[in-house]
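Action item from last week, closing it out:
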Amino acid sequence: MLSDYELIGLLFLFAIALPTAAIVAATFLGPRKPNPIKNDVYECGMETFGPSWVQFRIQYYIYALVFVVFDVELVLLFPSAAAFGTLPLFAVVEAVIFLVILGAALVYVWRKGALEWR
């Protein structure tokens, strides 16, 4: 019988081998008929017009990052909120500490002016 670590190692090897085998098989078995139309850059099936490379302001990425942080916060706090009545005091204190840390991060980002639309 395999030990737990051997099973995890076997799963890890399988997780690496399966996608690798699929990529290798697609490389050797896939059709190769390149032509200028297939190699042309397109977006949504339409030819691009104007410059293809457009730089976005860093502000958009900061908004996205703050959204992801608070989205992860919601995912992590939902189970404790759903079972709030049955949680021990230690779990409630941990959730409050988690909220305080994220609140401090929000205050920091706010004071830096990262949430102002300019």
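Closing note: The chain has a mean pLDDT of 84.
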